[in-house]
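Why should sequence recovery work at all? Because a backbone constrains its sequence more than one might expect. Tight turns favour small or flexible residues, buried strands favour hydrophobic ones, and helices have their own preferences. The token representation captures these environments compactly. In the example below, the structure is given first.
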């Protein structure tokens, strides 16, 4: 296997999904985070997710114990020294990402490609803090990762065609296709989606309709599987807020101004599915 060992940095919702997908497709995974509590939660989430995957895919030969056995959970970044490819999934916070990339750039072999799993942060900016900007590529996975067949791949200013080819082969090994887009804040998916979600929050805030009815309109009128506010709950309202703030800062355009209600809910800890309450209840 070309990418036998894959480093996955960040054991949040997206990191866990990427790690699961990789382990299910036969890769050895080194899952790194800075908190033992986060890693413990990741183990529990993986067990639950693998059971659900088998229930939803009755013909699948996925063995949860075997898949978990392919994942190493660690606090030690040095374990990435053996990685053949790295996918980074940390929070949408530039200060955090900058520190992570300076760290892994010093550990990983020079030829290893870094994939930035981000909603809005510039791939070119990430590449600039490494010694390998030509080997840094955006790889925007969708949630839940094991169930989504398409990945948005983002070409940074220095990203070479060879790196795009490497990323394409890597994703094919996960059973995924890719669409390549250029490096602008939000890319394609989130430049549209975050505006939609933010405007839906304004509708709730302004009393135009409640969250249930807004989502129902999108499901029944446009055949969307989920409405914008249920999608926000799935992604996490804190992640939504950070992504909208990046767009607002990047474009300096008031249309990206975060809805005050969104900021208030995040401050209150109403983050969606992961906290049990967002625009909908998950208790």
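From this structural description, the recovered sequence reads:
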């Amino acid at each position: 296997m070309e990418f036998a060992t894959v480093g996955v940095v960040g054991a949040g919702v997206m990191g866990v999904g990427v790690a699961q997908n990789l382990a299910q497709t036969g890769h050895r995974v080194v899952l790194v985070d800075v908190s033992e509590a986060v890693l413990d939660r990741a183990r529990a989430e993986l067990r639950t997710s693998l059971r659900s995957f088998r229930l939803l895919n009755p013909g699948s030969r996925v063995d949860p114990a075997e898949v978990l056995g392919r994942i190493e959970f660690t606090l030690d970044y040095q374990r990435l020294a053996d990685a053949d490819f790295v996918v980074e999934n940390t929070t949408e916070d530039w200060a955090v990402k900058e520190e992570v990339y300076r760290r892994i750039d010093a550990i990983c072999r020079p030829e290893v490609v870094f994939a930035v799993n981000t909603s809005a942060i510039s791939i070119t900016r990430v590449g600039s803090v490494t010694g390998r900007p030509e080997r840094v590529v955006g790889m925007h996975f969708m949630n839940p990762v094991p169930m989504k067949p398409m990945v948005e791949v983002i070409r940074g200013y220095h990203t070479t065609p060879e790196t795009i080819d490497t990323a394409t082969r890597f994703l094919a090994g996960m059973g995924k296709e890719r669409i390549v887009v250029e490096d602008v804040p939000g890319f394609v998916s989130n430049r549209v989606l975050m505006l939609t979600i933010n405007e839906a929050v304004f509708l709730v805030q302004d009393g135009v309709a409640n969250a249930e009815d807004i989502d129902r309109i999108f499901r029944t009128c446009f055949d969307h599987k989920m409405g914008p506010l249920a999608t926000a709950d799935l992604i996490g309202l804190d992640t939504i807020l950070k992504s909208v703030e990046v767009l607002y800062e990047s474009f300096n355009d008031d249309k990206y101004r975060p809805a005050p209600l969104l900021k208030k809910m995040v401050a209150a800890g109403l983050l969606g599915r992961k906290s049990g309450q967002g625009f909908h209840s998950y208790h």
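A few observations help interpret the result. The chain has two domains: 5-182, 190-267.
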